[in-house]
Amino acid sequence: MDRDSGPRVRVPEQRAPEKPATADALRFTVLGPVRAWRGSELLSSGSPQQRALLTALLLREGRTATAGELIDAFWGEDPPSQALATIRTYASRLRKILGQDTLVSESGGYAIRIDPGALDLTLAQDLAAEAEKARAAGDRCQARTLINKVLGLWDGEALASVPGPYADNQRTRLEEWRLQL
User: Fold this and answer.
1) pLDDT surpassing 70 at residue 110
2) Which of 17, 161, 164, 168 could form a disulfide with 27 if both were Cys (CB 3.0 to 4.6 A apart)?
3) Neighbouring residues of 129: CB distance < 8 A, sequence distance ≥ 6
């Protein structure tokens, strides 16, 4: 967390994921800048490196990422000598923002535990699957409506400004998926 900013910043004009949230429900976006909300309040996700950790964990959909996998995600084949300590520092800072029940340590790594539908990518994938079913059933109008909803979830480049080889690969994968829709 930066000294100049607290853990929370109120920015009501920025778009949170579409599903209605309870007052304290966490929501996340990756189809644009990586952001986190608690209800309607935008949370500071910290440095670009903290957002890279958040990204790597969110895209694992609840599965644990080992320290080695996270080090590879950040630095590829050339990690610094203090890579593990750095990952632990970023995780500690993110845990203060998101809560200890959300960012959990387990099996030598970390995982993010979020509610179904709390990630814009998951919502987009669900809508795309519904669109495919509608198309297969011959309902092209419904399929088009659903695909437009999927595309409407994008807010610029996916994972915008998130550093690291993992983010670069995932950004490319998400852009290719978007172009196929």
Assistant:
1) yes
2) 17
3) none
Token pair, residue 88, equals: 């632990």
Q: Which residue has the tokens 């189809």?
A: 31
Q: How far does Cα 90 stand from its chain's mean position? A: 15
Query: Residue 110: enclosing H or E segment and its boundaries?
Result: strand 109-112
pLDDT value at position 108?
87
User: pLDDT tens, 91-103?
Assistant: 999 999 999 999 9
User: Does CATH place domain 1-181 in 1.10.10.10?
Assistant: yes
Query: pTM of the entire structure?
Result: 0.85
d(CA 123, CA 152): 11
The domain limits of the chain are: 1-181
pLDDT digits (tens, 9 = 90+) for 38-90: 999 999 989 999 999 999 999 999 999 999 999 999 999 999 999 999 999 99
Helix H segments across the chain? Answer: 48-58, 67-75, 83-98, 120-136, 140-152, 165-180
Residue 23 tokens read as 């007052």
Give, rounded to a whole angstrom, the gap between the first and last alpha carbons of the chain. 37
